[in-house]
């Protein structure tokens, strides 16, 4: 794309599946949320409570994958989470 004197390359991003911002699970939105399982108060780095990711020194653990018995050695919300 050329805008004025500048040129920029453009690439099409792949479609992202529907993802709830409240629990980070796929296939629904927070407005249609049906359960009490939410991530309020949990650290997005380790899944623990009482602190936030910015100051977290715990081992990285995805709370979503941990609850489902999957490999959980990554942060919540990263693209490594299997979209099922």
UniProtKB/TrEMBL annotation:
<protein>
    <recommendedName>
        <fullName>CCHC-type domain-containing protein</fullName>
    </recommendedName>
</protein>
<feature type="domain" description="CCHC-type">
    <location>
        <begin position="43"/>
        <end position="58"/>
    </location>
</feature>
<keyword id="KW-0863">Zinc-finger</keyword>
<dbReference type="GO" id="GO:0003676">
    <property type="term" value="F:nucleic acid binding"/>
</dbReference>
<dbReference type="InterPro" id="IPR001878">
    <property type="entry name" value="Znf_CCHC"/>
</dbReference>
<dbReference type="Pfam" id="PF00098">
    <property type="entry name" value="zf-CCHC"/>
</dbReference>
<keyword id="KW-0479">Metal-binding</keyword>
<keyword id="KW-0862">Zinc</keyword>
<dbReference type="InterPro" id="IPR036875">
    <property type="entry name" value="Znf_CCHC_sf"/>
</dbReference>
<dbReference type="GO" id="GO:0008270">
    <property type="term" value="F:zinc ion binding"/>
</dbReference>
């Amino acid at each position: 794309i050329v805008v004025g004197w500048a040129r920029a390359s453009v690439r099409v991003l792949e479609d992202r599946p529907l993802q709830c911002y409240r629990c980070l699970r796929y296939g629904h939105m927070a407005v249609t949320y049906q359960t009490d399982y939410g991530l309020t108060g949990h650290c997005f780095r380790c899944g623990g409570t009482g602190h936030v990711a910015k100051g977290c020194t715990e081992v990285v653990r995805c709370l979503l994958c941990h609850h489902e018995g999957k490999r959980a050695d990554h942060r919540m919300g990263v693209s490594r989470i299997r979209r099922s």
